[in-house]
Amino acid sequence: MVIVIDFGSQYTQLIVRKIRELGFRSEILPFNTPIEEIINKKPGAIILSGGPRSVTEKNAPTINPLIWTLGIPLLGICYGMQLISQQFGGKVASSPTKEYGSSLLVLNKYLHDESPLFKDVPSQDTVWMSHGDYISSLPSSFTAYASTESCPFAAMGNPEKRIYGVQFHPEVTHTHSGKKILHNFLSVVAGLKPDWSIKSYLEEITSSIKAFVGEGKVIVALSGGVDSTIMITLLSKTLPGQIYPIFIDHGLLRFQEADEVLQALAKLGIPVNLVNAQDRFFKALKKVKDGEKKRKIMGREFIMVLEAEAQKIPGVTHLAQGTIYPDVIESAVSVSGLAAKIKTHHNVGGLPKRLRLKLVEPLRYLFKDEVRELGKLLGLPLSIIERRPFPGPGLAVRMLGEVTMDRANKLRMVDEIFRDELKKWEGYKNIWQAFAVLTGVKTVGVKGDERSYEELVAIRAVSSTDGMTADWIEIPPAVLRKISERITREVAGVNRVVYDITTKPPSTIEWE
Asked: Could you say which of 385, 420, 446 is where a domain stops?
């Protein structure tokens, strides 16, 4: 067992995901977990996560110092490394140069072959940074292993105590050798042996669902995306005859998406009840411009529609939805309670007591790539498994400003043109997510020798594996030109197109 101590990082569960990829079992515990509980779990290794706070703050989250005396191999990441440094007599200060995104890590040459943490790692490598503080003075009992241009102590260690720290995030995909570094810590430093797989997870979650639901009836909330489709496939195999799938059309789906979803599920032999609730959602969203309010309204209306549908099913006991962990993290439902809230997800936060249903979320602790692997195990076709993600609130959060039917139709057309042209490009297979945004900004243009004053549209395409981090895709200029020409020519009310070239972080993938 590998224990991950959570200090509120957006990446905490990502650490666990990487550990799973390496084949090790892992569990997250809050930073204030009693030391006796940690000891009772008999961990083979402990990892301290990053976090949004500063160790120099008053009442900053900390940990029982007895943890340093247990003799258990320990790795601190970002905030975790700074906490180790502070506890062992080092100094932490606000960095004059903040590091967010990719940085070049340079290992100290004379230590390159001596540190087990960096065994077989290049002497110079790209890492992912996200910090405002840095270690200005290293503890005397620790050795500096690496640096970046603006961070003199980017990695440190005390081999005798088997305590190490890295300022960067090895759990993030954009740290090129991050997985290797974690492997070195778990296998070389801690001497652990792998025993976990997505197959073992499927066996465990299937058994857990059967025990939790028993003979009950489950209403299943579908959005039509990868997560909900894989969830309902899992539940149909696990609870045959006990599920009641509901697909809510809120009027903010992509072009012809409702038909595509129903056809895909029909091929899987899963009958679905389609509920047309477009008028209800547009009425609830009328004159609402704030993105967070839109998300909360969408969540509220979803629950109310599901509540009405549940009343039509005698004896229904449970509600299932396809929540995955990035949704939970960005909604700040972290184990420690310290995670900074990024945005509300309509399917996160529990159910109102009046619904009297128990919540079933079999994918809640999985990331998108793990969900896809689960889909393969369940025998789903690639056309479903490789489907691009789509937010639960739909086009409402890709429409800055007021949500109206006219704007939704306009955005549907823009989005369809964008994705249609991308599908013709050979690089489409590398895109994890691609979509268009109505910005609500109007700009001056010229159409037919006349002045136009129409809406600015933004387009975005990113690569990612789990949705926690993302990089923008370099679409060839010729493809971008074609996309822009078609959008401004074929969609009334649009006269300008811009391409979003921002990574996550500092942005999120969606605009709202």
From this structure: 385
Q: Quick one: which of 126, 49, 33, 106 has its CA closest to 82?
A: 49
CATH number reported for the structural domain that contains residue 487 in this entry: 3.30.300.10
Q: In DSSP terms, which residues pair with 446 in a beta bridge?
A: 451
In-domain check, residue 162 = yes
- Rounded to the nearest angstrom, the gap between the alpha carbon of residue 407 and the centroid of all alpha carbons in its chain is 28
**414 and 494 share one domain:** yes
**256 and 150 both lie in a single domain:** no
Specify if 91 maps to a domain: yes
Q: Please check whether residues 172 and 40 belong to one and the same domain.
A: yes
Q: Are residues 431 and 455 in the same domain?
A: yes
Please calculate the CA angle 255-466-177 and round it to the nearest 5 degrees: 145
- Do 275 and 254 share a structural domain? yes
Q: State the pTM of this model.
A: 0.70
Strands of 314-472, DSSP E: 316-320, 358-360, 433-447, 450-463, 471-472
CA distances from 68 to 19, 451, 484, 501 (A): 22, 70, 58, 43
Number of Cβ within 10 Å of residue 171's Cβ equals: 30
Q: Are 184 and 119 a contacting pair, CB within 8 Å?
A: yes
Place of tokens 């241009």: 149
Residues 443, 441: Cα–Cα separation, whole Å: 7
Q: For position 448, what pLDDT does the model report?
A: 79
Torsions phi, psi for 173 (to 5 deg): -55, -35
Buried b (16+ CB within 10 A) or exposed e, 142-153: bbebbbbeebeb
- For residues 8 and 49, membership in a common domain is answered with yes
Query: What tens digit of pLDDT does each residue of 71-94 get?
Result: 999 999 999 999 999 999 999 998
What strand order describes the sheet that includes 316-320? 273-276, 243-249, 217-222, 316-320, 358-360
Structure tokens at 98: 């903040």
Measure the CA–CA gap between 306 and 311, rounded to whole angstroms: 9
Q: What percent of the chain has pLDDT over 70?
A: 93
The reply to whether 277 and 327 lie within a common domain is: yes
Residues 227 and 311 occupy one common structural domain = yes
Tokens linked to 219: 């209403």
Q: How far apart are CA 441 and CA 439, in angstroms?
A: 5
Residues 466-508 pLDDT 10s:
777 889 999 999 999 999 999 999 999 999 999 999 999 889 8
Domain residue limits at 164: 2-189
Structural domain total, the chain = 3
Domain CATH number, residue 141: 3.40.50.880
Active site residues: 78, 169, 171
